[in-house]
Amino acid sequence: GNAALHEGHLDLAMSCYLRAAQDLAAHAGIAAAEGQAALEALLVVTVAVHLNITLLELKAAERAEALHEAAIAKAHYRAAVESADFVLSLAPGNAKAEHRRERAMQHVGQ
Q: Is the pTM of this model over 0.70?
């Protein structure tokens, strides 16, 4: 995901991050069985993946706005809010999540 993001392949990056998010969620039980250190490592990676998903939703929204696709842009902004909210549920006060949520909320109208 990171390489695709840095190269500007946003759709590929999103696909990678979504797959990673699913894999991480599937391994929560394994991490719990391995102990606190494994859970903390899983949390760090999960937060990072969802922060990148939030970023990509914002980029997708901006791309849709540039193409005058307001409904699609709004859907991406809503998805960015949901992803940022998820990060904040795991890491309250996360500055990146708060900033990205605020950026998205300016367009969602809530």
A: yes
